[in-house]
Design goal:
two-stranded antiparallel sheet; 451 residues; globular; single chain
Amino acid sequence: MNKGTQNSKKYLRAYAIIVVCTLLSTVSWPAAVRAELSEDTIQETFYPYRHGVPQVPGIEPGLVINQSNWEVAKEVMYPEYLDLVKKGWVEIKVGETIPFSLPDEYVEATRKYAEQVTLSPEGYLQNYVAGLAFPGQPDPSDPQAGVKLAWSFKRGFNWGDNACICPFYWSFVKGDGTIEKTINFSFHFLNFKHRVRHDPRPEVLPNPQELFRGIYARVFEPFDLKDTQVLIWQYEDERKRDDSWLYLGFQRRVRRLSQEQRADSFLGTNIFVDDFEGYEGRVTDMNWEYKGERILLMPMYKHNEMEFKLPDYPISNNTDDEGYHYIEFGGRAGWFPNITWQLRKVYVLEVTPKDPAYPYSKRVWFQDAEQYTNPLSFIYDRKGDLWKLFVIGKSHPDYHLPVNKGAGANIDNSVHVIDVQRDHATLLRFKGHIEKQRPELFTVQNLRQGR
């Protein structure tokens, strides 16, 4: 073989290697080649009570924690709320700890997609498809542990793919028990993307705005606020700020809410638009510092097993025409729901705004380690003084309306937001339904038509 032939063969071999490498680099490999989420991680994340529920000496179901024995709860209640017990404002009845398991479809989506999810250096979510964004035990040494928990909340199951609350009563109550006003709303929620349980899955189409979620609310009474409506668009790409619109019935016009108005009193309540569902704003507008894991009493319970006794300061009749019982409120000024609290595994975060002009200096955030929602938050003003206690009572779906059985969502069921500086509270009572929603509700055109 002559030298020229040998060189030609060498060149052909080299060319073949280059072609093969190029082809390999363009192949879309099946999911099986990437690391699978371990079964141990799945069990640890979604079934934290599989080996037994939390046990704390002296804290047993049926115990009533009050002004005379508050010290027994020092390890399982944060001082900000325990102080109200010490003052005699409220008594806390301990209930049994029960699992609030997320639905199988959400667990399977996590198993399938979680390993591909990442965060950008700025904290934006990347490669998310469905399920829990960051399963597993938070790592205290991970500087992004807090923002990962925040994304697990923002892309968490919460109300599920879609739901409505109707009727939805918001009452303004002064420190002497005087009820200033009660607003009757309907609230509607629709996830346009990342849907796992209800058709259409995985996305509601058409979706030209690339929305992740829509929230629509309408006021039915009192007369001076009748037909007031609110629309919120949360975009899939968090680099885009949420859009919000307000329709005032007496003005008969739609106006866009500025970012400043989102952090201002909503219709005279103690709640901001940014406070909806615990936190409705963008993850990347806040710093999220993971402070560790605790076993704490949390306001989670079986709605159908609560005592529906009228308090000294009734908000309204506690039963509707269908026989549904609304949680009643008692305690000091009628501010506190008559519910039980149970021992839960909780992740604690400190949430501080990146904008120095934001009205809150921080939130102390308590995230349930099974549902990844936040039933409890303490909010501080710019001086660092305690401003608000934000408590969301959550019912197990199997002990609520028949339509919610098996839904896997923790049903927001009672809320008390106490402004300790103004001696004032906003109380919320829910009738929440996990059911299909009409996409046309979540449009600006719908506001104008006032459907």
